[in-house]
Amino acid sequence: MHLRLCALTLALLPWLAHADDTVVSPATLALHQRLLVLDSHLDTPLDLTRPGWDITQRHDYRQDGSQVDVPRMVDGGLDGGFFAVYTPQQPLTDEGRAYASAYGLATLTRIRDMIDRNPDTFALALTPEDARRIAAQGKRVVFISMENAEPLAADPALLNTYYRQGLRMLGLVHFADNELADSATALPHWKGLSPEGRQLVTEANRLGILLDVSHASDAVFDQILAQSTAPIIASHSSSRAVNPHPRNLDDGRLRQLAAKGGVVQVNTYSDYLVPLKPNPERNKALAALGARFHNLAALSPEQSHALYQDYHAIDTKYPQPKADLDVFMKHLLHILQVVGPEHVGIGADWDGGGGVTGLEDVSQLPKISQRLLDAGYSEKDLANIWGGNLLRVLQAAQDGAAKG
Q1: CATH of 36-276+322-403, one of 3.10.520.10, 3.20.20.140, 3.30.70.20, 3.40.50.10210
Q2: CA max distance for the chain
Q3: What is the residue range of the signal peptide feature (predicted)?
Q4: Which helix (H) or strand (E) holds 390?
Q5: Taking the model in full, what pTM does it have?
């Protein structure tokens, strides 16, 4: 995810529907629907805070900005994925650590509550075999991940609590440096991992939690790759060769990740896919809007709708360049060429700012399958890209813990 000038941008999308010339054939749709399709980074728990918002009901991103719900998952053949416990970075103070600790546990509770309220629709997955079994039952697979490990800063032993509650992927840092690691989009503080961050890497390996290097600085990437006893993942990252944004990975690091058995999951966050121009007026307007609506969970449905409309008005008045499906495919195909289809997947950053013109929500995922088939990739390749590689790297992390 990109820098939040205000918390509201997590739940809102600037995209409007545009024509796209990708026609998904009946044969491709049938193939896509029978594959196990998993996304490695879903920020949908943010929508679970909205009063009256029901994930089992169909929504429209043009009305409320949401991109994932059960009807659209069915349409797009999305069997599930990793639902992220995302915590906004707070000041590095006692108060900030306390806030992060409470916020993270509250988000974890929302995810577990979503499963418990809808037992015929969702099921918690702890292992790759769980995911296959749950999907075969016609339910949606819910793995749990953490984006920004600041909730653990006050008490690193909480990692064991999260693990017992289902956490199976851990990203140490987000858009700002924290007490564990440096971010790709901030000035270096630790020159990589802090001592506590290194300890957390060791503990994640011991538990069999998959380590995620998306949002991490190059130094953190290098240090985690060197220290980890198991393969690692970049759960939502794109190509620096295609667009030189620090959140993207260069070809050398992509090859290093693959050489150690890891996987890169390509994202659809437009700000990382195309170059941006400085836009201080947009930033100022978004900051003012965030000051008005700083607590999404407290908004009524009417206020939430008004917030989205205000955000869209700002986006219209102060537009940024937006990527389309062609640009996303350029990133995806480049990374496939660099590391091969055994080390690539999809982590679109849905409900966290992801989505490009022509691929605005999860109902449109079969377009990617059509584009991959048109580019010459096989059914086996698609099976790996849509879920096989993700489950393989998770299994490797869990196998490493068992051996330890």
Answers
A1: 3.20.20.140
A2: 56
A3: 1-19
A4: helix 389-403
A5: 0.93
